[in-house]
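Appendix B: a complete holo record

For completeness, this appendix reproduces one full record from the ligand-bound portion of the collection. The bound molecule is zinc ion. The inputs are the chain sequence and the ligand SMILES; the output is the full three-dimensional arrangement of the complex, encoded as structure tokens. No fields have been trimmed.
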Amino acid sequence: MPAGFPDFRLGTVLATSFTGTLSERHGDPVERIPTPQRLVDWLEVNGLAVDSCTPAQLDLARELREAIHAAATAAAIGDALPTSAVRIINDRSIHGRAAAILTSEGHRRWRLSSPSCVEDALGVIAADAIDIISGERDGKLALCGSPTCRAAFFDTSQSRTRKWCDMNTCGNRQKKARFNATHRRR
Ligand SMILES: [Zn+2]
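The structure of the chain with zinc ion bound, as generated:
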């Protein structure tokens, strides 16, 4: 990972890992894909390798990211989905031409129509967002309990009682804050 860049938070759900590339949305936001190259890096880590990315493609990616964030947040709290967010997600899904490939080892790979087609990768992310927002996949959208985060995440725990978008960051911080508050009171 190049120095000077914040690490990616890798989750198991593609769409919400993607919205997590802007973290601490209600605190001091951290942009984890500040340059086209960082989007290339993120896509590679997430099985959607491209060989290049233009500034315009990065803009498309960020627009999709914010649309997913808005729609997933609305879905998590039971609000109507914002029309513009729905349109952006659908546009990206329609314009993606990635194919799912089954490897001989039984794994799924994504094959993009061309190695420079960031739009194909965004189509895969948009389709993943549609899956979780529409309830097609087993799980529940919820908002992170950290007041500086409030990220929408997809809870696949059996009890559906997960509180934080990410145990290693938000979860740990909240636990520490509670621990310190308890000790101050004593
Ligand atoms: Zn969080």
